[in-house]
Design brief:
Strand order of the largest sheet: 1-3-5
Shape: elongated
Strand content: 5-15%
Radius of gyration: 37 Å
CATH topology of one domain: Ribosomal Protein L15, Chain: K, domain 2
Number of strands: 6
Mean pLDDT: 88
Helix content: 10-25%
Length: 148
């Protein structure tokens, strides 16, 4: 049985360290694999990144261009959609928009709802819990609707 004092590393598993600068016969003499002159031939001269193997890794990673805002954009609903899906006197709120299938629940959870003024408005709506553009506000109030 092998004991601690008799353990040896496996043959060829340990490489000998490269002995640099030990004469011309060693094949690593004169310039000692540093080339001629220059900053990197001198002592203390080193290459770019200090963490070895980091440069190719940095070149491989995709660089995302552009800008991504931290502010979520509101979910947009036009007045024409409200005109088509709601009857006069109905209340327009995030809950009713989800129930009628106009908006997805996940989208509503992510951000606010904004009503835009594209289309015509002839019915009276009560709008609750939504932000409204100036043109949409004008059209809804002209039709006799209220905004809370």
């Amino acid at each position: 049985m092998a004991e601690l004092h008799s353990l040896k590393p496996f043959q060829r598993s340990r490489k000998k360290a490269k002995r640099v600068g030990r004469g011309l016969g060693s094949s690593h003499g004169t310039y000692s694999t540093r080339g001629m002159k220059g900053q990197r031939a001198r002592s203390g001269g080193s290459s770019g990144l200090k963490v070895l193997g980091m440069k190719p890794l940095m070149h491989q990673t995709p660089k995302n261009r552009g800008f991504k805002s931290i502010h979520t954009k509101p979910v947009v609903v036009n007045v024409a959609v409200l005109e088509k899906n709601y009857s006069a006197g109905d209340t327009v709120s995030p809950e009713t928009l989800i129930k009628k299938g106009i908006l997805n629940e996940a989208k509503v959870r992510r951000g606010s709802i904004k009503i835009l003024g594209e289309g015509t408005c002839t019915k009276k709506f009560t709008i609750d819990g939504c932000t409204i553009s100036a043109t949409a506000r004008e059209k809804i109030e002209k039709a006799g609707g209220t905004i809370r």
